[in-house]
Structure formats: C-alpha cells, structure tokens
C-alpha cells in the first residue's frame, strides 16, 4: 500500500490503497468511475486533514494546472485551475501587480481547496476576492447531472468563517475544478490585523504587506517540513455577548473580535495558552510553543497521539472557560470523513 505521509502536512505514518495524481477533468471523471466501488478521497496538498488510520481506498491528488488572465478598466479577472499552489499564485499576483491576495500569503494548499473553508488571514478572506467557483458533479451514472460543470457565484457558495456550501450539500461528490478571482485595480490595503496596523496606509505597497505577512507567519507557525501540522487545529469559538461579558469579568484581557450579528469571536489560541498547555505533549504530539492553536507532530506521532492531545486540549478549555472548541481540521477514518468534534468529545 502506498504511503500517504508525503501527501498530508501532518505527515503521519498512514497508507492508502492507491494514490493517483489528477491532471485533467476527464481523468478525474474516469478514475472516479473506475474506483466507484471503494472509498474515494480528493486531496489538494493535505494541509487541513487528519488521517486516523490507513485509508481503505484511493486518494486522488488534485494537480490540474493553468491560469488565465483578462482585464477591463476596473478589474483583473483570473481563472485558476484547482491544482495550482495557492502561495505560488499569491506570489505571482504580487509580482504581476494584481493586488488583493497579499494578506493571504503563505497559506498552504491548492487554489481549488481555498473556497472550501473560505481561507482567511490577516483581515482578508477568500470571499472578498472570489468571483465564482467551478465544480464538477461526479455522482454515479444514474444522476442526470453527472459530469456537468457548474459555476457557482460567490453568493451561492454561502461563505462564512471557515465555512461554505462545500462543507455541506456540495461535499460528497462535487469537486472544485477551478476558481475565478476578481481583483480591483483601485486597490485598498487591508491593514487592520496585528502588526499590519503599523504600516502607513497612504504609502504601503502590496509587496510590503506580503513581506510582513510572510515574516509574521514564519515567526509563529511551524513549517510543516520541520514539524508536521495542519495550521490552526481548532476554529476560533464564537460566543454570545452575554457569555463574553461573563468571561471578561474573570479575564479582563481576553482577546475578543465583535461580529456583525452581536456575537463575539474569541481567540482559541489564547484560551489554550491560558490553560498552560503550550509545549504540552502526548506521545509524539505536542501543542506548539509559539502558537497554542497549532498541534504538531514532533516526528514520531501516531494519529492516536494527535487525537488524544486534541481531546485533552478541548477538555481543559471546556473546564476552565466553559467554551467547547470545534476542530477546523477534517478527520478521516478508513472509509471517509467522520465527525471531528465527536471524535474528540
Ligand atoms: P486538503 O487538506 O487537501 O483538503 C481539505 C478538504 O477539502 C478535504 O476534505 C478534501 O477532501 C477536500 N478537497 C480538497 N480539494 C478539493 C476539491 N478540489 N474539491 C472538493 N473537495 C476538495 N487556513 C486558513 O484559512 N488560514 C490560514 O492562515 C491557514 N494557515 C495554515 C498554516 C499552516 C502551516 C497549515 C499547515 C495550514 C493552514 N491553513 C490555513 C489550513 C489550510 O492551509 C487550508 O485549509 C487550505 O485551503 C487547505 O488546502 P489543501 O489543498 O491542503 O486541502
Ligand atoms: N494568542 C495567545 N497565545 C497563543 C496564540 C494566540 O495569547 O498561543 C493570542 C494572540 O496574542 C492574539 C490572539 O490570540 O491576541 C489571536 O492570535 P493570532 O493573531 O495568532 O491568530 P489566531 O486566532 O490564533 C487566526 C487563524 C489563522 C490565521 C491567523 C491570522 C483561525 C482558527 N485561525 O489564528 O488561520 O492565519 O488568525 O489571521 O481562525 C488556520 O486557519 O489554519 C490558520 C492558521
């Protein structure tokens, strides 16, 4: 059985029955039908997944390449095939003078995976630049829409914080084949998050934002090439105003981000940090010392170590703050995706 270790950023010692690179929609459709009698999983760069055991089927790697550009007076329009590397795309756009993606530099993964959890960082989310998402419906031959390409507008994607339609009804047999981005020529920098606020908004360039974002990310987040990880393991929890005010009484310095609907987003990393868990280890898994929201593979972790650590972290935060953390990372057993929150409850 081929190893999945090089194909997911947690780099755990798990295998699959087959691992195949996909370079075209036709090949994807053909293999999907060929492997129809076994579990199937499409992966980009594997930077948001946790394999709990060997996968009892085929893993298809999205490597569909190609970028098309056109422009009018007001916008640059990009059509990007799903297997393109996201960070390479961001770098290329900065070099070409197509601005708007610079805050999203250094996020691992494929362009085609970016809409799934509406990737976000440093005050920008994919939804701010997304024009459309192209999907291929791969459902079996009885479905009349099988093999049909659909273009969903950004509104149809129902983007939210780390959420979209691709985690719900478009999850099981819809594959994102390409994305369309629309970048305004009248560029406005987004400087509200963290150290970006120190940049001068009247003079700043997209390149400077790109450089600053890369520097901050390199200082906080572990490089998966050194320590396996999947970025933030949990989502930042969103609580009611009432629950936030209760917490603020006991913890006056608790970081909080008010949301448009009156709820408040908390920083899961801060909550975990305040439980004294930085550096905490179970087997080969550990809470990262620079960023408590990231769980790492110290080199010899087994899937069960990561699960046991995630369960412990969730339990400690629940006991101390009465806040239930939900994983951002997607969990897979031998047959496919499972409920990640249930797996660590
Ligand atoms: P994968 O992990 O390969 O796949 C994720 C899920 O999508 C799986 O369920 C898979 O089956 C499915 N899938 C993959 N491709 C397709 C497709 N074409 N069509 C349909 N389904 C598909 N995320 C952020 O939002 N912000 C960050 O700042 C950020 N920082 C990170 C830092 C590090 C160090 C790491 C390791 C991760 C970080 N992440 C961040 C998470 C991750 O980079 C994103 O979720 C990314 O979009 C995942 O892309 P991928 O290609 O690796 O997806
Ligand atoms: N904090 C601590 N201790 C820690 C970690 C964080 O006190 O160990 C505090 C920080 O001081 C800050 C607050 O928590 O006050 C937020 O921390 P940070 O700015 O590092 O961001 P985050 O909330 O931990 C989120 C995203 C990241 C994204 C960054 C930057 C989620 C789940 N995570 O992290 O996305 O890169 O903001 O925008 O929303 C990912 O999704 O994988 C990811 C890395």
Low-confidence stretches: none
Helix content: 10-25%
Overall residue-averaged pLDDT value: 96
Supply the helix-strand structural class.
alpha+beta
Order of helices and strands: EHEEEEEHEEEEEHEEHEEHEEEHEEH
N- to C-terminal separation? 31 Å
Tell me the overall shape.
Answer: globular
Q: Which kinds of small molecule does this entry bind, naming each only once? A: flavin-adenine dinucleotide, uridine-diphosphate-2(N-acetylglucosaminyl) butyric acid
Number of helices: 7
Radius of gyration: 20 Å
Summarize the structure.
This protein is α+β, with helices and mostly antiparallel strands and 345 residues long. 22% of the residues lie in helices and 26% in strands.
Give a structural overview.
This protein is an alpha+beta fold. It is built from 7 helices and 20 strands. It has helices at residues 25-34, 86-96, 206-220, 241-250, 268-274, 303-321, 340-343; strands at residues 16-22, 40-43, 49-51, 55-62, 67-71, 75-81, 120-121, 124-125, 130-137, 149-153, 174-184, 228-232, 238-239, 256-258, 264-266, 281-282, 285-287, 294-297, 330-333, 336-338. The strands form 6 sheets. It has a 5-stranded antiparallel sheet, with no helix packed on it. The longest helix is centred in the C-terminal third of the chain and has 19 residues, at 303-321. The chain is globular. The chain starts with 15 loop residues before the first strand and ends with a helix. The mean pLDDT is 96. Bound molecules: flavin-adenine dinucleotide (FAD) and uridine-diphosphate-2(N-acetylglucosaminyl) butyric acid. The site of flavin-adenine dinucleotide has 32 residues, from strand 2, strand 7, strand 11 and strand 12. Residues 121-122, 193-194, 220, 231-232, 235-236, 255, 267, 269-270, 273, 291-293, 328 line the site of uridine-diphosphate-2(N-acetylglucosaminyl) butyric acid.
